[in-house]
Design goal:
Elements: H1 4-15, H2 20-23, E1 30-35, H3 43-58, E2 63-68, H4 76-85, E3 90-94, H5 97-102, H6 119-126, H7 129-136, E4 143-158, E5 173-176, H8 180-189, E6 192-195, H9 201-206, E7 212-216, H10 217-222, E8 231-234, E9 239-247, H11 248-252, H12 256-291, E10 295-298, H13 302-317, H14 321-332
Parallel strand pairs: 1-2, 1-3, 5-6, 5-7, 8-10
Antiparallel strand pairs: 3-9, 4-7, 4-8, 4-9
Helix pairs in contact: 3-12, 6-12, 7-14, 8-13, 13-14
Length: about 325
């Protein structure tokens, strides 16, 4: 996790050059870099593209967002750390990493198990008052949160054999992002969680270092994981969030109309990203079965899995008032 001292030091460095792009405004558009780790077919990239389109449309000819996809400037965590430090202006990173890197716990709310029902429910929550409060909370870590999108409901991909019931999870070496929430969830389910970087998942499945991975369909396609994992169990245990965030020092140095346009573009990017993620999720499942040799299964005792992880919602609600408010909103919405 980046310390407050590092944040302050980085903020001072960034602040020194905040106004410089606007000195040269007459000579061309202001260029901002947006870095992320996903492939161009992935909904995470679509989130970045939709933000770029919406932002540039609001200030035609005045701003230009340069997207660096596919780990060009670093992996997920590195891109987020770079945005906090101000070495890039904007990142799109997995929401699960924000508590890890910034210490701001509230973003965990979206990945509490079986709380967010589907893509439509996610959109309702992400654009609600509590969704905006969770983004605003990132200001304490030197970031301005602009958008939170669901880039794919998570399921379970295994190598050796299909998992068709809760007993099938027991002891499986399962790749997770090494964060406390995911560790708690997958230990409760009964797996043996293994923390690995995203880019190492293919090789680990291929060499049997791990038995399985909890993953969204878009990542199975984007990383060609279907070549090594042939059994997909549909659990839909939580969404995978993508958060677009800007370095706060940089953002605060921009004119008010640019700040407003960035915030509006963030909100505008959510629905088209969700639509793409939902459509790709469903169409890619058919392709995996028909053309990639993947077998898809329903979990026979999904209610039992939900019961195993239900106490985690209560536990995490006690960690942050914002998480508690999010849970109440999610559980009250129909």
């Amino acid at each position: 996790m980046i310390s407050r001292r590092q944040l302050i030091a980085a903020g001072g460095t960034v602040a020194a050059g905040l106004a410089m792009p606007w000195v040269a405004r007459a000579s061309g558009p202001i260029k901002m870099r947006l870095a992320h780790a996903t492939a161009e077919s992935h909904p995470g990239h679509i989130a970045a593209v939709e933000f770029k389109k919406a932002f540039e449309a609001r200030l035609p000819g005045q701003v230009e967002v340069q997207i660096f996809p596919n780990r060009m400037l670093g992996d997920d965590k590195q891109n987020l750390e770079s945005a906090v430090a101000g070495t890039i202006e904007i990142c799109m990173a997995s929401g699960v990493l924000f508590p890890l890197v910034t210490g701001r716990q509230a973003m965990d709310a979206y990945q509490l198990p079986f709380l967010v029902r589907d893509y439509e429910h996610f959109g309702e929550l992400a654009t609600s008052d509590i969704g905006q409060k969770i983004l605003e909370d990132l200001g304490e870590a030197g970031l301005v949160g602009l958008a939170t999108s669901d880039i794919g409901q998570r399921n379970f991909l295994s190598v050796g054999a299909p998992v068709t019931n809760l007993a099938g999870f027991q002891g499986l070496k399962t790749r997770i992002v090494p964060v406390p929430l995911h560790k708690a969830i997958w230990e409760a389910v009964g797996t043996s969680p293994v923390g690995l970087p995203y880019g190492e998942v293919y090789g680990a499945l291929q060499t049997k270092v791990i038995d399985a991975v909890e993953i969204n369909v878009s990542s199975i396609v984007g990383e060609n994981l279907w070549e090594v994992g042939k059994y997909l169990t549909l659990t839909g245990h939580y969404p995978w969030t993508a958060v677009i965030a800007c370095n706060k020092g940089y953002f605060d140095g921009l004119p008010a109309e640019v700040q407003q346009a960035m915030r509006e573009a963030g909100l505008a990017s959510i629905k088209p990203t969700l639509d793409y993620a939902r459509d790709q999720d469903h169409s890619a499942r058919d392709d995996l079965v028909k053309n990639k040799g993947v077998q898809i299964f329903e979990l026979e005792d999904l209610p039992a899995m939900k019961d195993k992880v239900a106490p985690i919602i209560t536990e995490w609600s006690g960690k942050s008032p914002l998480i508690a408010e999010f849970v109440a909103k999610a559980q009250s919405s129909t």
